[in-house]
Amino acid sequence: MSDEPGTLARILVVDDSRLILRAAQKMLSAEFEVITAGDGVDAWEVLVGDTTIHVVFTDLNMPNCTGFELLQKIRTSAEPGLQNLPVIVMTGASDDEAARLQSLQLGATDFITKPFSSIDLIARARAHAKYQRATRQLQAHSTLDPLTGLANKPGFLDRLQQDIAYARRHQQDLTVVRVEIDDLRAIFLKRGKGPAEQLVMHVASLIRAHIRKEDTAARIGLGGFAISLPGGQVQGIESMVDRLSAEVAAHPPLIERERLSLVLRAAALGAELQQWPSAEEMLDRCEALLQNPNVRRAMASAPALRPHESPAAPVAPAPRAIPLAAPRPEPLRLDPLLDQVKQGHTQEAIDKMPQVMQRLLPLLRLLTASQRTQFIRFMERMGDQ
CA angle, corner 72, sides to 368 and 118, nearest 5? Predict the structure, then answer.
């Protein structure tokens, strides 16, 4: 890992000028591992496939994807590590004050003016890489989400693994629930980070109020939550999610003098635990249920209210089933599917694609950063055909 002592911090430099890229690499390579990209598209592919980047230096005016667009992608990412990445904007003589202001509004961390000196470039790289490394080391030892006070994803997975082990020993049920605030990214883009975080904290407080002491709730994405419910019964879990949804619908939070209606999506996974040897796979399967348009449900919604208008009395929503996994799923065999595809019979493979992806997830996690980048490019080329 690049955050371990003695390893070089990794710097991504993005510019459509090969001269700038060569100059930056020459200035930084003695102290840092430098990765370069010719535009925002290539840079985003690197960032999605490589979670070890510490700092990004980016130009503004580039083809295909500008520095503004790249900055917006980073700041609206659902991955906290990517969303909080230091981004230093490299501005030239043609970039006026308005461009700087726009960069600042989109979340730029710092600025450096071209042509830059090695002293200026190295000083910024050192400062921001050191801060980012320290932040990641602190986060690695923390199991709490700083915004909500719930568990973070590593803390949740650790607790879920303990719950799995306990449930196996004592032959108890265990259910994982995923809850997502619909369209939170759009709210983030329209209203900014502050209002979006207020909505997240509002939903987090309601989740905390609706679970038992033995349950564990976590924030695992921008507006995503996960709950581990050991020993819970399906009917009780459905009722809990319905109560949570009804309260979200009946009491929309007041944000910037306006009450914002929310929509929650939820999916639950309860199955024989020997089928899922790890917490990561159990959470991945529940995530697949949530994202599958054939099973996901809008759990609650409420009409928008005028500023300062009191919400109506709570109205319980009609009962909705939470999609649950089959108790004893048959293991999917890939070889027969591949044989059918070779013979031109593709429909069954298409129908079973969600299960195929789930079977492949453990292998995909083993890909190196460069292999992930190659895989993403290969899939994009397949989509263009």
Answer: 70
Largest CA distance in the chain: 68
Q: What's the predicted TM-score (pTM) here? A: 0.50
Q: Of the candidates 254, 287, 256, 255, which has an alpha carbon nearest to the alpha carbon of residue 269?
A: 287
CB 110, CB 124: distance < 8 Å: yes
pLDDT of residue 336: 81
Residue type, 249: A
CA distance 176 to 57: 40
Q: Give the residue carrying structure tokens 């819970």.
A: 232
How far is residue 297 CA from its own chain's centroid?
A: 20
Tens-digit pLDDT profile for residues 222-259: 899 999 999 877 778 888 888 888 888 777 777 777 77
Kind and range of the H or E run holding 53: strand 53-59
Radius of gyration of the chain, Cα coordinates, nearest whole angstrom: 23
The DSSP element (H or E) to which 113 belongs, if any, is: strand 110-113
Residue 144 is classified by DSSP as: B
